[in-house]
TrEMBL record:
One of its GO terms (molecular function) is anti-sigma factor antagonist activity. It comes from Luteolibacter yonseiensis. PANTHER family: ANTI-SIGMA FACTOR ANTAGONIST TM_1081-RELATED (PTHR33495:SF2), ANTI-SIGMA FACTOR ANTAGONIST TM_1081-RELATED-RELATED (PTHR33495). Pfam families: STAS_2. SUPFAM superfamilies: SpoIIaa-like (SSF52091). The lineage of its organism: Bacteria, Pseudomonadati, Verrucomicrobiota, Verrucomicrobiia, Verrucomicrobiales. Coiled coil: none annotated. It comes from the Bacteria. Residues 3-105 form the STAS domain. This is STAS domain-containing protein.
């Protein structure tokens, strides 16, 4: 299991990443869980990236997949606990503006 999902008190669905990298090997599992979680949500998704230290193009594609599943007119997917390496990748690929980002403290 690479993510754990739960519903917060305000109705936001929370996916907590449990691995240190999101890559081609575990991306299919992330996408499947994201699809399941989003289908049960009211359009608000938060992904806790506190343990995530590396993301490759497949992992980035998984984030974009979840973003697209949320659809137009909904709140942006929120990424919390984003480390500097993951943030750098999001910025280099110029997709950081698609997400609501909260850097790791």
């Amino acid at each position: 299991m690479i993510v754990q999902s739960s519903k917060q008190d305000d109705g936001t669905m929370l996916m907590t990443v449990l691995v240190d990298s999101l890559d081609r090997l575990n991306m299919p599992e992330f996408k499947a869980e994201a699809a399941k979680v989003i289908s049960q949500s009211d359009g608000r998704l938060e992904v806790d990236c506190s343990t995530l230290g590396f993301i490759d193009s497949s992992g980035l594609g998984a984030f974009l997949y979840a973003h697209n599943l949320l659809g137009e007119g909904r709140q942006p997917m929120r990424l919390t606990g984003v480390g500097s390496e993951v943030l750098t990748i999001l910025e280099l690929m110029q997709v950081h503006r698609l997400f609501e980002l909260e850097p790791k403290r």
